Amino acid sequence: MPELIVSLDIAERKEAEEVVEKLGSSVMFYKVGIIPFTAFGPKIIRWLTLLGKRVFLDLKFFDIPNTVENAVKSACDMGVELLTVHILGGSNMLKTAIKARNTGNTDTKIIGVTILTSFSDNDIKEIGLYMDINNHILKLTELGYKCGIDGIVCSVHELNLLREKFRHPFLMVCPGIRIKASGDDQKRTATVSQAVSAGADYLVVGRPIIKSEDPLLVVEQIKMEMKKNEKK
After folding, report:
1. Nearest to 171 by CA among 219, 111, 128, 126
2. According to the model, what pLDDT value does residue 1 have?
3. Of 60, 109, 150, 187, which residue is the catalytic one?
4. What is the pLDDT of residues 200-227, one digit of tens each?
């Protein structure tokens, strides 16, 4: 069964503490993205790890190889379990990131980012990428795989296509998971059952949980749905 990661996209320390406290032992894995990291800095990671939580650092490192190398070293030193790099950074950057990880905390998994789940075909055309989304994601995933990354972030919509070519232990981390149909800024969303049935390794869920009046209840519903749809 895949694992649930709760996206802690919160800029207020008290609110973040309340969410983590309410969820208690029912959630052990949290995503720290640009919102909490900008608001709190590395302290948010230290706080979570001291609570015994696992951390997915989603800062999408995308820079010259030397800069990414040092960022990856710092992230590994903090003990994060997963971290993201943008595959558009190219093979030199990706190989340097992997080398940096291998000289430090080799337990940290490097996860590649291809196309954000907020993008549609029209959005990628607007920035000058005229290959359709699926082919673009496939090409970037192939590059990351050849360079030795441990997995990718992808929407459930591409998951079946990617699993045909990239088998386990190559990891598939799926954001944009919703309890029901959503009209928010995520365009390539999917339900929990769709993600589990398609073979996701990690389901990243943010707003449906942290914006809920009863986040613990939502987590329990998600876990029940995950168990019900687990592949035999």
Report:
1. 111
2. 83
3. 60
4. 999 999 999 999 999 999 999 999 999 8
Active-site entry in 63, 121, 123, 201: 63
- Confirm whether 22 is a catalytic residue: no
Domain regions of the chain by residue span: 3-228
- Annotation says 121 is catalytic: no
Query: Judging by beta carbons within 10 Å of its beta carbon (0-12, 13-18, 19+), is residue 107 exposed, middle or buried?
Result: exposed
122-153 pLDDT, tens digit each: 888 888 877 788 888 999 999 999 999 999 99
Confirm whether residue 102 is marked as ligand binding: no
> DSSP string covering 52-81, please?
T-EEEEEEEE-S-HHHHHHHHHHHHHTT-S
CATH placement of domain 3-228: 3.20.20.70
Task: Enter the pTM of the model.
Answer: 0.92
Percentage, residues of the chain above pLDDT 90: 71
